[in-house]
UniProtKB/TrEMBL annotation:
<dbReference type="Pfam" id="PF22244">
    <property type="entry name" value="GCE_fung"/>
</dbReference>
<keyword id="KW-0719">Serine esterase</keyword>
<keyword id="KW-0378">Hydrolase</keyword>
<feature type="domain" description="4-O-methyl-glucuronoyl methylesterase-like">
    <location>
        <begin position="213"/>
        <end position="361"/>
    </location>
</feature>
<dbReference type="InterPro" id="IPR054579">
    <property type="entry name" value="GCE-like_dom"/>
</dbReference>
<keyword id="KW-0732">Signal</keyword>
<dbReference type="InterPro" id="IPR029058">
    <property type="entry name" value="AB_hydrolase_fold"/>
</dbReference>
<protein>
    <submittedName>
        <fullName>Acetylxylan esterase</fullName>
    </submittedName>
</protein>
Length: 409
């Protein structure tokens, strides 16, 4: 265990008030055994860490649920003024006499036979990421949003293109990557109700909600990313060996868990993912485990509640989640004004995960000193903190593309 510095229970935004806490060593087992080889990491330490996160943080899937069928709802080989191929693919799942479907919006560069792809969820429908009129509007439940004209939990035409600034579609295509996005509410609506998403397909006869160690919404959304990857392996236009999971905020937590649970993801990006994502829980800076479990009780499994306002009892921390992604490339990004997500905690998590990457001979974050704002560290483990707020910007995408070119493509 590595010791760090100094106590309180209100929201902490002052480094001098961060409690003293222990950083559990990723390379020492729960039983105290030192891990000094890749083989031991993969056979002993990685499985026990994965199992702990599965049973006590995100929740495990009750059983496998694979794609029943997929349908290409729409495609155009001359989309975005001739720049891209567009495809809208619906994946359907059936179990317990119930059906769930979600739609992947795909933009692929025209000049490539097989494209590497960034895969990420969006918050308000596929039609919000682009002005493209051909993109279908989801009929799934949505959070109301006055700015987007969303009321009665219904997505509408008025919100088309409202989130184009978060998705640098042209930059991604110009760099020779495809973009795949899914409206997360189609997989599991983001509310504390486990009756209307994918969970419902896997309940036992009288079950109405997941068991204490079973999946919350983050694990359900991660499952959806993994199923999208299953589809990509069937699509001849996609290089399924070069799919990068991407996510912002709660969906950054999701992209990390997807990358940890499925080693087929070639790289993982966490954008401003904060508590329960990249940020260290034990620092208790900004959002805490207690706050997140109170505000969003459906995101994690019920077993995680035992660590609310009790982070010191956690035998793990989020750097060990990041370490589960090793040796695949990992990018953690923060925003200067996003104190709620604890940028320093996100950085330190990347730093402490690096010892596992080094075991593989990969270069991680070589210093405990945070980089200056807008001065990225780009190694197999990459990190930047940019100016601005909790968001995704062109600056973020420019750096993700540069890093992917060096470490994934």
């Amino acid at each position: 265990m590595l010791s760090m510095s100094i106590v309180t229970s209100q929201t902490i935004y002052d480094e001098s008030k961060v409690p003293t806490f222990e950083v559990p060593d990723p390379l020492v087992t729960f039983g105290g055994e030192k891990i000094n080889s890749v083989r031991k990491w993969e056979k002993v330490r990685r499985p026990e860490l994965l199992k702990f996160f599965e049973n006590n943080v995100y929740g495990k899937l009750p059983k496998a649920l694979k794609i029943d069928s997929y349908t290409i709802l729409e495609q155009d080989n001359n989309a975005l003024n001739g720049k891209a191929k567009r495809k809208q693919v619906q994946l359907t799942f059936k179990n317990n006499d119930k059906i769930l479907s979600f739609t992947i919006l795909l933009y692929l560069p025209k000049n490539l036979d097989k494209a590497p792809v960034f895969l990420g969820y969006n918050f308000y429908g596929n039609h919000t990421i682009t002005e493209d009129k051909a993109v279908l509007i989801s009929t799934a439940w949505a959070n109301n949003n006055e700015d987007f004209g969303i009321e009665n939990h219904t997505l509408i035409e008025e919100s088309r293109g409202k989130r184009t600034h978060r998705w640098a579609v042209e930059k991604i295509l110009d760099a020779g990557y495809g973009l795949a996005t899914i409206y997360y509410g189609e997989v599991d609506p983001d509310k504390n109700d486990f009756s209307d998403g994918v969970h419902n397909l896997l309940y036992q006869q009288t079950q109405r909600q997941p068991k204490p160690d079973e999946w919350g919404s983050i694990a359900a959304w991660s499952w959806g990313m993994v199923r999208a990857l299953d589809y990509f392996e069937k699509d001849p236009e996609i290089d399924a060996t070069k799919v990068i999971s991407f996510g912002h905020s709660r969906l950054g937590k999701t992209s990390l868990w997807a990358g940890a649970t499925d080693v087929r993801f070639a790289g993982v990006i966490s954008n401003n993912s904060g508590c329960g994502g990249a940020a260290l829980s034990k620092r208790k800076f900004g959002e805490t485990v207690g706050r997140i479990n109170t505000s969003f009780p459906h995101w994690f499994c019920d077993n995680f509640d035992q660590y609310s306002d009790n982070e010191e009892a956690l035998p793990v921390d989020q750097h060990q989640l990041l370490a589960l992604i090793a040796p695949r490339p990992l990018y953690v990004a923060s925003a200067q004004e996003d104190e709620w997500a604890d940028p320093k905690g996100e950085f330190l998590s990347s730093y402490y995960a690096s010892s596992v990457y080094e075991l593989y001979g990969k270069k991680g974050i070589g210093t405990m000193e945070m980089p200056k704002v807008n001065e990225p560290i780009q190694n197999t483990v990459a990190y930047h903190i940019r100016t601005g707020k909790h968001d995704v910007t062109d600056y973020d995408w420019e750096n993700y593309i540069k890093w992917a070119n060096a470490f994934v493509k």
